[in-house]
Amino acid sequence: MTETRETGGGGTRPLLTVRDLSVQVATEAGAKTVLDRLSFDLTGGETLALAGESGSGKSMTALAIMGLLPKPMARVSGGAIKLGETDLTAMDERGYRKIRSARVAMIFQEPMTSLNPLMTVERQLIEVLLEHEVCRRSEAPKQALRLLKDVRLTEPERRLKQYPHELSGGMRQRVMIAIALACDPEILIADEPTTALDVTVQAEILDLIRTLQAEHGTAVLMITHDMGVVAEMADRVIVLRHGRQEEAAPVRELFAAPQTDYARTLLAAVPRLGSAPARPQAEARKKIVEVDDLSVRFDITGGILNRTIARVHAVENVSFHIRERETLALVGESGCGKSTIGKALLGLVPWDGSIRVDGVQTRGRSRAMMHPVLRDIQMVFQDPGASMDARMTVGEQVIEPMRVHGLARGSELQDRAEWLFKRVGLSPDMLSRYPHEFSGGQRQRVCIARALSLSPKVIVADESVSALDVSVQAQVLDLLQELQEEDGLSYLFISHDMAVIDRVADRVMVMRLGQVMEEGPRDAVLRDPQHPYTKRLLAAVPVPDPTRSRPAMPDAAGIEEASPIFPVGQSPQRIALHDLRQGHRVARVAATTP
Amino acid sequence: MPILGYIAKRGLQAIFVVVAVTLFISFAIRLTGDPAVMMRESANVTPEDLERVREGLGLNRPFLVQYWDFLSGLVTGDLGASFFRGPIAPLVSDALGATVLLALTSLVVSLIISIPLGVYAARHRGSVSDQIIRLLSLTGLSFPNFWLGIVLILIFSVSLRWLPASDFRSPASLIMPAVTIGVILTATNLRIVRTTMLDTLNQQFIMVARAKGLSERSVIYKHALRNSSIALVTYLGLQFGSLMGGLVVVELVFNWPGMGTLAVEAIAQRDYPILQTVISFLAIMIVAVNLLVDLVYMALDPRIRLE
């Protein structure tokens, strides 16, 4: 948006020069090069993005610059990293310690685990101030408070005395940024700083990084897999793949005219809000899932006698239906109850209300009684690695549900497993392999095959593509769509990603604190949102278009901080929905600010 | 408030456990037979004599009354008299002192050895020194403690005549019993420290601490070790019961005048007032140590304080 954006790092002398940097990792099969002769410059005040999918070597680059490659497995095997006139690759540990945080600072992906759980925020801030002798010990608390104010943390005096577990993910990332900027470094390396955060929090944190960068003139090395974040943050981009540079260009040029095939595919795979084609009407079809007044509450026990002292109202009086061959998307930020609804449908959490699957009431069914229902409804989880047994072949895992439900036996099982593997685009001879022999995308295909093995009518897809790289994500979404067209499957598609939802959903339900804020046909909710919360969610989504100037975030007024935890006997105020037109229903805004 | 509530809750639980355990001990000891009959060493005891003995010991009163006397004795310190050796209180307090001295010495020595070695092994995972440390720890684990005690006596007392073989006469007497217990403790503690340290060192906040430019010392001892120590403290609490069991055996081997020796002598003489008191004290110590562990846990980990 400023002039320097276009020119990039041409003029002034670079702060950081990386030349032919190579990193090798020791594996059982010998040394493997994970970063191959990467070169770039970074000048003051600019943002360079290292973009790429998993295994592209982008995080390795960051760790190499910080001198924090995990020893003895990884090492810099060639090339030079120069910070000004200092050659970092020749630096000993003692010298490097004076560089870290003082001249080059880093923030990490997981704000939940980046802070020491046993130390107060204040101690963690003061520690870095004293280490680099930014100020005297007596002034350190005052300085720490100023840093928290700089990162716009609410109630900074109180936050200083708090422990990490008392802060939300967004607050922790602000604390991390405060720690990183404590010594006013020349370079800030941000490794996927917002990937683990909700989309509105992501927008706030990105905004904060931009503001602080402008105030301090810091150079930012932004490491991300998200082309939307690249478009919003970067002046220049380097696209990495398998440790090699695929393309390097100013951000507008890259997005307007990518030169390499890989950059083109990567950009094409990025889901864009509002670009998805229209979906066929599902109006007259049969209702497969009917949910009425669903509530899920979890008890919180405490006190000397371990009595229930409060309840988490995870889901509160939610009603919806899914028709045959229809995809209903549930969207909302973490803790809004969207995953809990999916679990309730499969009887994995205790619930109240009414759930009917293909006309069969599932209320009050024991686990054994749920068996016949589970033939019709299956689930695909977020983390395909964690949802498979590592010590069982994938074939066994696909066959197991069929055997449990007595659908087939003997060689027939094997035949069906082979057929299922072909359906999800895997080769049948992979059946005898173990999960670790597959990539993330292939594993998710195995999980889909397992879910399909019972020929269900409904699949609950809980963040099923969130952990996958964009190109793989696009393929898995295509597969899900194909299965829907051929088998007439219905999906309950749970996701926090608005662009993915835009691509797959027929109808969208926006949830917050266990209640529905807005629901309706996809085009109505996503193109013409009525509730301020929906508007805010949509505005926060990073747009993969660097030419678009960033609109201001809608005012958060009317969306107050709130918690779904209530004392026993109290319930959240029930929010009524009113009809706008054709199934587009929205919560009365007044009801959220009593 | 939550902190006080937590302490109150744990304290109440501990009291409940102590009452239950002592009740069971009193009851179980009476199942072993009538002490009055067992006291009859020689013949020529008339039934009237027996009755007089029972009355003198208060054995003809209802069980719960006897238990109540015993329990209030534990609280007030009036532990009554043994059958043969006079008042119990001085006997038990001497033995308790000797046992606590032995247990604490072994524990402290074992921590001084196992923490730095465990940390070192974790930091140099897979190296030759790590392998050696692990091998030594496995060797230490495989010694039965009574055997180790006897071997130590044979070497250092019988052959070399450097250290006294038994009893508690000088500080030198402490060395062999403490080493015997310490070897096993060190071997297990070393493994716990190494494993939890490996876990902690892989955490993101350790990377962050390094990225702050802190010295390796600060990273390891200020950030990593405190986080690892939570698991170590938990384990020590759980381990304390078996440590007490091991102590009894080792005390016998070295004729150490502690609770174990006292208990075994009491069993041999069928002196059940002593036995009942000693076992109850051992049980109370285990409960107290676990209560202490809970409190240390709370001091270490702010997340516990919220519960």
Task: Explain what the structure shows.
The complex is a heterodimer of chains A (594) and B (307). With 594 residues, chain A is of the alpha/beta class. Chain A folds into 2 domains: 14-269, Rossmann fold, CATH 3.40.50.300; 287-553 and 561-587, 3-Layer(aba) Sandwich (Rossmann fold), CATH 3.40.50.300. Chain A is built from 22 helices and 23 strands. An 8-stranded mixed β-sheet of chain A has the order 16-17-18-13-19-20-23-22, with helices on both faces. In chain A, strands 6-7-8-3-9-10 form a 6-stranded mixed β-sheet, sandwiched between helices. Chain A has a 5-stranded antiparallel β-sheet with strand order 15-14-11-12-21. In chain A, helix 5 packs across helix 6 (140-150), helix 6 (140-150) crosses helix 8 (169-181) and helix 16 crosses helix 17 (440-452). The longest helix of chain A has 18 residues, at 199-216. Chain A is globular and about 70 Å long. With 307 residues, chain B is an all-alpha fold. Chain B is built from 13 helices and no strands. The longest helix of chain B has 38 residues, at 216-253. The A-B interface holds A 66, 68, 93, 96-102, 105-106, 108, 110, 113-119, 127-128, 131-132, 163, 165, 176, 179, 302-304 and B 5, 8-9, 12, 203-205, 207-216, 218, 223, 226-227, 300-303, 306-307. Chain B: This is Nickel transport system permease protein NikB. Chain B: InterPro entries: BPD_transp_1_N, MetI-like, MetI-like_sf. Chain B: Residues 96-297 form the ABC transmembrane type-1 domain.
